[in-house]
């Protein structure tokens, strides 16, 4: 159960650590940590020290909030996110979004690693998420008392902020970055999809598939917090030529593509 007291304790702790009025929140996905190197005047809070905060259990997620200066703005970066497949519930997964909002962020940027369903998109490409399909079997708003935190029946007709998406496209154009636009399907995991499941996702209209992001987007909309999200496409999900999953290769591809993601996020922050 989510309580205001929990949130207040987390927010007060972070304010005491110097997390003062951040303007932009950032969620970093699997293998996407290089952005942190660009942040100046850093203050760090490890998840295990923040009251009521979940703990990251995935080896590719380090588990800390980082506050500092990026692109002329105060930012707070979530290095290490939470997933259903780790055993967390939707309230745990989205708790940090509510905390960052309570600290004062006005915009949220989310990244993830995803598999390309649309085979016009290639391994190492980036995809701006224009819409999504929630296949995680639940909602972070489906709990008693949700109306105390925002509108229960949250509108999702346009979940991704048009202004920030336009900024991201403009930055991509300025830097010669090939930024696709598409639909992201979020599944539970941690197992990868079967050939039949990839075919199903394509029929449903998905361009990419991953195991995160959608719960955070739903809560951002619940909070009326403008949000945009970008996927690094780390593998090509061709059901007619499907190779066994290679997690080290996925992490390597994400790392190689990340400088483009850093340029995008830094550029859009400068324009906000």
Automatic annotation (TrEMBL):
Any one annotated GO CC term: cytoplasm
GO MF annotation terms: purine-nucleoside phosphorylase activity
Alphabetical list of Gene3D superfamilies matching this protein: Nucleoside phosphorylase domain (3.40.50.1580)
Pathway: Purine metabolism; purine nucleoside salvage
SUPFAM superfamilies referenced in this protein's UniProt entry, alphabetically: Purine and uridine phosphorylases
Pfam families for this protein: PNP_UDP_1
GO terms (BP aspect): nucleoside metabolic process
Keyword NADP found: no
Keyword Lipid metabolism: no
Family of this protein: Belongs to the PNP/MTAP phosphorylase family.
Function description: The purine nucleoside phosphorylases catalyze the phosphorolytic breakdown of the N-glycosidic bond in the beta-(deoxy)ribonucleoside molecules, with the formation of the corresponding free purine bases and pentose-1-phosphate.
Name of the featured protein: Purine nucleoside phosphorylase
Organism: Nonlabens ponticola
Organism lineage: Bacteria, Pseudomonadati, Bacteroidota, Flavobacteriia, Flavobacteriales
């Amino acid at each position: 159960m989510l309580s205001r007291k929990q949130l207040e304790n987390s927010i007060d702790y972070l304010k005491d650590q110097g997390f003062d009025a951040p303007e932009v929140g950032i969620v970093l996905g699997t293998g996407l940590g290089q952005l942190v190197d660009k942040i100046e005047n850093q203050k760090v809070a490890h998840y295990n020290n923040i009251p009521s905060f979940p703990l990251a259990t995935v080896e590719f997620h380090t588990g800390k909030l980082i506050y500092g200066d990026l692109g002329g703005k105060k930012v707070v970066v979530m290095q290490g996110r939470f997933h259903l497949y780790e055993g967390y519930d939707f309230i745990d997964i989205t708790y940090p979004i509510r905390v960052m909002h309570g600290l004062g962020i006005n915009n949220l940027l989310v990244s993830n690693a995803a598999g390309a369903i649309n085979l016009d998109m290639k391994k190492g490409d980036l995809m701006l998420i224009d819409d999504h399909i929630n296949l995680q079997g639940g909602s972070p708003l489906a709990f008693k008392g949700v109306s105390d935190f925002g509108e229960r029946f949250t509108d999702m007709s346009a979940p991704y902020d048009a202004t920030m998406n336009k900024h991201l496209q403009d930055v991509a154009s300025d830097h010669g970055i090939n930024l696709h636009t598409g639909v992201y399907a979020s599944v539970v995991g941690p197992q990868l999809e079967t050939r039949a499941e990839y075919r199903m996702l394509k029929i449903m209209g998905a361009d990419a598939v991953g195991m995160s992001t959608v719960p955070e987007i739903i809560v951002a909309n619940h909070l009326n917090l403008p949000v945009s999200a970008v996927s690094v496409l780390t593998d090509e999900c061709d059901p007619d030529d499907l190779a066994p999953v290679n997690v080290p290769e996925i992490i390597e591809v994400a790392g190689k593509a990340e400088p483009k993601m850093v340029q995008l996020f830094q550029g859009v922050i400068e324009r906000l």
